[in-house]
Amino acid sequence: MTTELRRITEGNYGVARLTPAPEHGGTFLGQPKFTKAVKKELKLVVQRKNMRNATTTIRNKRALRVSETPDWEDIREAAYEVKNRVGRHLDHYLEEAEKSLTAHGVQVHWARDADEANRIVGDIAKAKGVEEVVKIKSITTQETDLNEYLEEQGIAAWETDLAELIVQLGHDRPSHIVVPGIHRNRAEVREIFLREMKNYGRPCPEDVTSNPPELANAARLHLREKFLRARVAVSGANFVLADTGSLVIVESEGNGRMCLTLPDTLISLVGIEKVLPSYDDLEIFLKLLPRSATGERMNPYNSVWSGVTPNDGPQEQHVIFMDNGRTNVLADPVGREVLRCIRCASCINVCPVYERAGGHAYGSVYPGPIGITLTPQLRGIDDPVDRTMPYACSLCGACNEVCPVKIPFTDIIVHLRNRVADAERKELSKDVDVNGEKVIMKAAAWVLGDYKHWETVMYASRSASRILGPHKIGPLPVPVANRWLDYRNIDHIPSQTFRDWWKANRGEEK
């Protein structure tokens, strides 16, 4: 075991840990709800500037590429139809994919949830006797917290995508699904490289500047030694082709190609919704994805591999099809449309809430519109984090317009808000008697049915204000009222009612 690996895997050299430090929020699990987290994120002035500059650049590049594609809407419609067909017949295409993959020498595994997926990856890595793996950028493995799991097992998971490397070396969390380090600027990247690279292998040159080519070269040299010694690689997949048993990864840096060719063993963790019916369908999505994601006509590297080839590339390949809540999403006639997502992040790049709040505020590896529609369905709406996510939206509809697979985000968001309201209503009924809601409604009818009744309540509130003093409303002795206040910031009760003000300033009511 190398010195730097021993420091990491044995956990006795704190600054060299791979996973995010506690002061940076740890993993996404257990994060505060959006309404609380966003207040902290909005105070990060440099991050907000970074986000605004980056998202504006990506939006403009995407708009240019779309404008030069005259059949753009036809391509969107074709992708919409293909993904809908996959959703209707997902069981059939998954079985076909398993059969095709197995025929090409790939070992296929099925994982019900994140824990099972992580165990499968960990068991394979331990069976190979390795102390490290190299990773291609994979949102699915971030969804399962695979890196953290492997570290607990004594296995270092090296991210090889440049933006993921920046995030990992910064003991940070991704804030975007395509550009994970979008919240960092080049000066911050330089500081991270100088401070951290030496803890994990080849150090960054001391005279490196914040010039992007120099930073990229420092990362290239740092990663090269890891590529050359790695025996196991972990990847995701943009698409799985059912008819040929092929996996597809599109990327811009070449690190994916290194991971797909050099190691002896390749493990690919894939969500069950990533399957496409045939190789011919790939043409549609290779036109949509790069234009929508990074504003490119084509990704520099498009890798398609179909199983094991003797003496060429990995000689042992594993594909793990993971559910982790996706079948629950599929069961919802409205919510299931989000499973068409191809992870291009075009919805994130146009979202005014995301641009100002940043990705960390969402408490999920999926931020922005895709996060607030997908995450609550994958994880359920029992957790406060997931309950507040559908409300992190202004319903402006910009995400609907740019989505290459025509996901109706705003319809799903309103649907999820209804589900949250229904769940909370059921919980409220446990806190009061069976007729509690009727009692509340009758009381409201009495108050609002006669202006004299309303005045009586206003005078009572004025008396309450004198007792409570000039403070905001805080915890109340009524549990139901406290739950209502959890989602609202309410100023103190005014000492003068509007009716009294009107009488004093505008004369008696007639």
Features:
510 residues, alpha/beta, Rossmann fold, Fumarate Reductase Iron-sulfur Protein, Chain B, domain 2, 4-stranded mixed beta sheet, globular, transport
Percentage of residues assigned to helices: 40-55%
Mean pLDDT: 87
CATH topology name of the largest domain, in short, is: Rossmann fold
The H-level CATH homologous superfamily of the largest domain, spelled out, is NagB/RpiA/CoA transferase-like
User: Nearest-angstrom radius of gyration?
Assistant: 26 Å
InterPro entries: 4Fe4S_Fe-S-bd (IPR017896), 4Fe4S_Fe_S_CS (IPR017900), FTHF_cligase-like_sf (IPR024185), Helical_ferredxn (IPR009051), LUD_dom (IPR003741), LutB/LldF (IPR004452), NagB/RpiA_transferase-like (IPR037171)
GO molecular function: 4 iron, 4 sulfur cluster binding; metal ion binding
Organism: Propionibacterium acidifaciens F0233
Protein name: Iron-sulfur cluster-binding protein
Question: Would you write up a description of this structure?
Answer:
With 510 residues, this protein is α/β, with parallel strands linked by helices. It has three domains: 3-30 and 69-324, Rossmann fold; 333-431, Alpha-helical ferredoxin (Fumarate Reductase Iron-sulfur Protein, Chain B, domain 2, Orthogonal Bundle), CATH 1.10.1060; 436-506, no CATH class. It has 24 helices and ten strands. The strands form two sheets. Strands 1-10-7-4-2-3 form a six-stranded parallel beta sheet, sandwiched between helices. The chain has a four-stranded mixed beta sheet with strand order 8-5-6-9. Strand 5 (239-241) and strand 6 form a beta hairpin. The longest helix has 23 residues, at 45-67. The radius of gyration is 26 Å and the shape is globular. It holds the Pfam family LUD_dom. Keywords: 4Fe-4S, Electron transport, Iron, Iron-sulfur, Metal-binding, Repeat, Transport.
